[in-house]
Design brief:
single chain; 640 residues; alpha/beta; 6-stranded mixed beta sheet; 25 helices; 6 strands; elongated
Length: 640
């Protein structure tokens, strides 16, 4: 048996809203502080550098499957001549990648509490800019889940076309699997994903190495019979086309920021491990992107409908054999699992927003395995909605991708410039110059990506970004009003004792009734049992029997009958409580509701839910405290 106390209908108490935000590094709302200041939670549930690479870099790694293809599909408008510019465009993207990796190493060192661009902007650029950065990251993380899952399933259907009609259901099944793994904690997900990550990287590097030694494609079976999307009779490539190809290829840079967002997930020393992970991610991603672009120029590849560019490269380099299917399967698995990057980074970001009162505080809570469970579930729900909206088609989602992340990139770099201007550390000028150059590159890239993809669906992101910021502001204002009402930040008056009255709703005599009265007389100075009676003839025998049995039992507590002309149970009790508080304002009124706790979860369907109805009515219409006494049937049966 246990007693569960409920608040008297008031919202959950927020963190101290007297200041703009909680102290950095403080535990989120609802989490107990550690016994010693600065003590780390259980290290078993934190990441090593290798595990961080598996858990947080899958998005960036998997982008090699659709980044080069996005470049090729744009350049195909200029025919075979246009495809010759694949390598220069990729080199420009790789240069931007190098700048971003170097910049985010500095972000990790400067902001070891995580949060990435949100943390940087919040400290150096102001609240509103920080919210724009947070909104852009949230949109990018959500889209990453949907794009990664659909791209992974696209790789599967490229190898097995018969599954194409069921791609939506396959996408949803993969999403459920990834969500379930992440609910067990980020370390468990990293352990699961280390092998697929290693197989994918080895497959791509092997494919590149073998392809560089071939003078001609080993096989073209994959593309045979498929319609080419290559434009004919085109002999020139304009600057606009190159900019559009660059913008499309920048989708390969998404996920670079994930490590900086999730620094607290690493083992101590967390910043150093996160920096190693960031560098390893940048090096591997750059090598794979450049290697694939070299193969695209080496083989007479033509983008075709229904077959990915990566599948054609695997066919040309390794032949249409078991090695080809290993590459496809590894790509499919990693693309599907690339959504894990979002599951590792977004819940941490949401917990920081919750700590600063911009999201509901439930997103700041952690489970036993150091996982922000509510953030994981919210991300999965929104991603599932996007999958249903797109029908599992990756081409519907890709135009929306990468815009938000470049907005976050730019804000982060500008914030770091201001950070180094305030710092007095050695080499700050060079560091500020690096971040300033990165801000210039990512800012221009953000404009290019938005402009070139605006009519393809990017306008949705342009609308969603400010709406999300407005939602943050609304939540923050609500918490500010709650904080003002609760007088947070002010010293309250000393506690004083008041006469207490406990009301116990009953409907029959049982062991549950006896336990409820035992608890009530222990809690209050005065106890009243109430029962709701109905005037209908068929209800009178039960009311008379309860009255007779109560008099025979004589527990020393009065039984008050509350007549109800309707079948309502909660309203008469709520009206009685309201009358009591009106006539006896100095009395503390508590409603103690006894409820049986079934031995099995399914048995809850057998209950009449009277307790929930009464609790809802009292909470809605009065200021009384509510106690719900749980009488465990299983424990009672063992006691006998």
């Amino acid at each position: 048996m246990s007693i569960v106390s409920e608040p008297d209908g008031r919202p959950e108490e927020p963190p101290d809203t007297a200041t703009e935000a909680a102290t950095p590094g403080a535990p989120p709302e609802g989490q107990p502080a550690t016994a010693t200041t600065g003590a780390e939670p259980d290290e078993r549930h934190r990441l090593t550098a290798l595990q961080g690479l598996a858990a947080l870099s899958l998005d960036a790694m998997a982008s090699v499957a659709y980044g080069p293809e996005a470049i090729v599909l744009v350049l195909a408008a200029a025919g075979g001549y246009g495809l010759g510019f694949t390598l220069p465009v990729t080199l420009a993207i790789a240069a931007l990648l190098a700048v971003l990796v170097a910049s985010y190493r500095q972000v990790i060192a400067a902001f070891p509490d995580g949060g990435g661009s949100y943390a940087v902007a919040r400290t150096h650029l102001g609240r509103r800019t920080a919210l724009v950065a947070a909104a852009s990251l949230i949109l990018d993380y959500v889209l990453n889940v949907a794009v990664s899952v659909t791209a992974g399933v696209a790789a599967l259907t490229s190898a097995f076309p018969a599954l194409y009609g069921d791609r939506l259901w396959i996408c949803l099944a993969v999403l459920v699997l990834i969500t379930a793994v992440n609910l067990r904690g980020i370390v468990d997900s990293a352990k699961v994903f280390i092998v697929p990550t290693a197989v994918f990287i080895a497959s791509i590097l092997t494919m590149v190495a073998v392809g560089l030694f071939r003078d001609a494609p080993a096989s073209t079976v994959t593309a045979d019979g498929h319609a080419s999307v290559l434009a004919h009779h085109a002999t020139s490539v304009g600057a606009l086309l190159l900019l559009k190809a660059f913008a499309s290829g920048c989708s390969a840079l998404t996920g670079v920021e994930a490590v900086a967002n999730a620094v607290p997930s690493f083992r101590a020393p967390a910043p150093r491990r996160a920096q190693r992970t960031e560098v390893a991610l940048g090096a591997l991603l750059g090598v794979m992107l450049i290697g694939l672009s070299v193969l695209i120029g080496r083989f007479p590849l033509q983008p075709v409908e229904g077959v990915t560019v990566l599948a054609q490269l695997a066919d040309a380099s390794l032949g249409h054999n078991w090695a080809f299917y290993v590459v496809q399967f590894a790509t499919m698995v990693l693309l599907a699992l690339a959504a894990n990057t979002s599951f590792g980074g977004l819940p941490v970001l949401m917990s920081l927003l919750a700590r600063d009162n911009y999201l509901p505080h439930v997103f700041g809570l952690k489970a036993d395995r150091q996982v922000h469970r509510h953030g994981v579930l919210a991300l999965a729900a929104v991603a599932a909605a996007l999958l249903v909206f797109s029908g599992g088609d990756v081409n519907t989602l890709v135009p929306l991708f990468a815009i938000g992340v470049f907005v976050g990139f730019t804000i982060c770099q500008v914030g770091m410039v201001r950070h180094w201007r305030r710092e007095r550390s050695p080499g700050r000028r060079a560091k500020a110059a690096l971040n300033g150059f990165g801000a210039l590159l990512t800012g221009v890239s953000a404009v290019i990506v938005t402009a070139t993809k605006f009519t393809e669906g990017a306008w949705l992101i342009v609308i969603a970004l400010p709406l999300l910021v407005l939602a943050f502001e609304a939540v923050h204002r609500a918490y500010a009003r709650i904080g003002e009402r609760l007088a947070l930040g002010r010293v309250p008056e000393p506690p004083r004792a008041a006469h207490s009255l406990v009301i116990v709703p009953v409907s029959h005599l049982s062991l549950l009734t006896s336990e409820a009265l035992n608890a009530a007389v222990s809690l209050g100075d005065e106890v009243v049992a109430v029962t709701v009676t109905h005037p209908a003839p068929e209800d009178r025998p039960a009311a008379e029997a309860l009255r007779r049995d109560w008099e025979l039992w004589n527990p020393g507590v009065d039984l008050l009958e509350l007549p109800s002309p309707t079948r309502s149970i909660g309203r008469p009790i709520a009206d009685y409580v309201r009358d009591l508080t009106t006539h006896r304002p100095a009395t503390r009124v508590t409603v103690l509701i006894p409820e049986a706790e079934p031995a099995h979860l399914w048995q809850r369907l057998l209950q009449n839910q009277r307790g929930a109805v009464v609790a809802h009515a009292v909470r809605r219409d009065t200021d009384a405290a509510i106690c719900r006494l749980r009488f465990r049937l299983e424990a009672a049966s063992r006691g006998r």
